[in-house]
Prior knowledge:
The structure holds two protein chains of two kinds. Chain A has helices at 5-10, 44-47, 51-61, 76-84, 114-124, 165-181, 186-193, 274-278, 287-301, 319-333, 346-355, 372-377, 384-396, 415-434, 469-482, 495-505, 511-520, 534-543, 548-552, 573-584, 601-604, and strands at residues 34-40, 66-72, 103-107, 139-143, 159-161, 199-200, 205-209, 215-220, 229-230, 258-261, 263-264, 283-284, 305-309, 336-338, 362-368, 401-408, 445-452, 488-492, 567-568. Chain A is built from 21 helices and 19 strands. In chain A, helix 10 runs parallel beside helix 11 (346-355) and helix 13 (384-396) packs parallel to helix 14 (415-434). Chain A starts with a helix and ends in a 7-residue tail after the last helix. In chain A, a hairpin with a 5-residue loop joins strand 7 (205-209) and strand 8 (215-220). By secondary structure, chain B is an alpha+beta fold. Chain B folds into two domains: 3-104, Alpha-Beta Plaits (2-Layer Sandwich); 111-212, Alpha-Beta Plaits (2-Layer Sandwich), CATH 3.30.70. Chain B is 22% helix and 40% strand. Chain B has helices at 20-34, 77-84, 107-110, 124-136, 183-189, and strands at 3-11, 50-52, 60-71, 92-99, 111-120, 141-146, 149-154, 159-165, 168-174, 194-206, 209-212. In chain B, strand 8 and strand 9 form a beta hairpin. The model of chain B has no long low-confidence stretch (mean pLDDT 94).
Amino acid sequence: MPLDHEMLMKAEKPGRYIGNEINMVEKRIEDVRIRFSLCFPDVYEVGMSHLGLQLLYAYLNERPDVYCERCFAPWVDMEALMRESEVELFALETGDPIKIFDFIGFTLQYEMSFTNILNMLDLAGVELFSSERGEEGPIVCAGGPCACNPEPLAGFFDFFYIGEAEASLGSILDIYAQCKDSGLPKKDFLKRISNIRGVYVPSFYSASYNEDGTIASFEAVEEGAPGLIKKACLPDFTDPFQVLAPLVPLIEVIFDRVSVEAFRGCIRGCRFCQAGYLYRPVRERSVESLVKQAQAQLEATGHEEVSLLALSFSDYTSSVEAVDRLCGICTPMRVNLALPSLRIDQVSLGLMGKIQKVRKGSLTFAPEAGSQRLRDVINKGLSEEEILEGAEMAFRAGWSRMKLYFMVGLPSETEEDAKSIAALAERVVEKFFSIPKDQRSGSISINISSACFVPKPFTPFQWSAQNSYEDLMEKQRMIKKSIKKKQIQYNYHEGKLSAIEAVLARGDRKVGGAVFQAWKLGAKFEGWTERFKYDIWEEAFRLCGLDMDFYARRQRRFDEILPWDHIDIGVSKEFLIREMRKAEKAETTPNCRDGCGGCGFRKTGGGCVGE
Amino acid sequence: MASRMLILFSKKGRMKYIGHLDLLKVLQRAVSRSKIPISYSQGFNPHQQMSFALPLPIGVDGEREIVEIELEADLAPEDAVGALNPHMPRGMEILSARRRAEGEKTPASKVAAADYAVEADISPEELELRLEGALARKEMKILKKGKGGVKEIDIRPDLIEASACGNCLKLRLSAGSVKNIKAEDILSEMNLKPKSICRLELLKKTEDGFEPIF
């Protein structure tokens, strides 16, 4: 291990850096052909809570010719110690520096982790810009939700993988092994994989710009590179590749539990939600597969909690059967079952009732907007009556604590819409008191929190302007003032972080320069509110001669070339435009089960629920 | 029928960087995986009945640490060892187990002292000199943070025995719920930076001295 005793003793939580977890994969280096460093650009406890990391780790290590090891961002204290002692960033399994690996693969989960990627590459002793990396050293690649607009990071990566790893990552590795054996240069490898579904090699493309800064053209400059990069996606999810023995961290992480995925995609089509479009089509998993995995994972880990993951678990066709069967496994093992994403309805309360028989914890729901008009604009598919009925059912069933999540700054939001967040929370409190005392229990406590809306690529709001920082904060102050009842607590978010998120999420290639400058100015762990420094970003954009408002606060035209137009996630632009026009008129679109909205997947035969 | 079992284990190498509360989780999960019939507490959040003789500070190796578990069905001690060992992370090993007899006090209440081996970063001659100096002192006052704030205490009486051999320093220090002295407190009084510290044994008080609890 490259860190000595003294370094580990000086750092906070040395357990972050030692590996050695239960179910850690050990292989002999002589036995493998490809060494893959799976990098999560945040601290250990965050990365180890991520299901995708466990999935990729198991998927890659299942291949006998690949050894996948993990690498996380060292916390600032350890980074300083490592730089002082000239220790290069290493993988936890073998302690070997990641710069000797074949691949360095990052997962792009949130925009505010971008500077950490640069910091990790630098700490690894790897050139940041792909154009400056020679034949020596690893192929640097990335995947994950933020890869759907790869442009701000285009200069740093050799290739991006758009979509689900299980679909075609294997073919990429096969080709790499051939290229390595034949001693072919990196570019030959990149050319060969550039036609694999999901692969995007940014150096094979070039953009030109209009005088106003918008994109004039975006074209392939390498012969044979596809004009449109299609998302890689599993056609069938009934019984997908699954993690049977997840890593068990030795220190406390954010989510200390095993997670099983009930389905991919979401039938709802909330217009602000990128995940709702990105993970289409909706593909359900069989209960059998779910139960088998949960049982295996619990036995292999000894965890105390299992969580059923989905974008909206109550929409799972067999939700009741799944919960009943999992309760049957969990109760004798004294394991908790967690259902993190539920809607306010009878089904959800029934499910919650099954898993919280005695003590009623807090219920969490996300109405997202306070007024009915705005909920229709975002296509939440939830009426005020449904919210209040749901609350009443919950109170009558014994719950008295509730968390309600909202967003401020949604397109077309007025002062009245913002204030109605407070009004809705107050009506929920009134609903509690309208129930006779002997039919409810506890004392009512409503916790509302608001996040600032960030327009994202591949949503109907991808053309929308974000509110200014001042407007976002003013609206949140207004909500705070409007709350009169003492049973309501209100938490709100700092808008400046959301402003930078909006710039990075919809940025073009030029934004990469600002990410680089921000890193040089010391930006790292920017997703951690206390470490986020807005003035660094202001300075970084100024140094690059870029205007943040151009990216975040400009209403884009439908005919503008968007930085991510060469990526095809399966949802058509025509559909998104239709949805945006409906949003302008506060018209709703039914969920996929009630009627096909024609998003574009049906015609691809992608196995969606509309068929 | 419920029984209490004492388990002797080592925690070394990389595992020394895992703190006490995390170690508790590591062992609880190992017990769950092993499926040995441990008892759970009553109440809303049942937890495994497991208690340690004495927490081991982070960064210190433990040769012979003790944890007690309560079982809801009888299990032969050697079967407990055999069931648990395959579930230990590298750096931890279950060395032995035995039933705690009815009426025998808990290990936590018995701990009175602990033996340590310290690897020093100075020459054997220099170590010998510093040890003589330390033993010659009548008092060793240090500032210790407690519940009532910082106060000065004399730890010289808690340095029960000490000897040096090569660059290894052996210490016997007061330990347990009454008075617990960290090896590092003594070492900094001797102006010693340890290369490693290992807790060798947990001891109970007897009429004519100390003897191992397990």
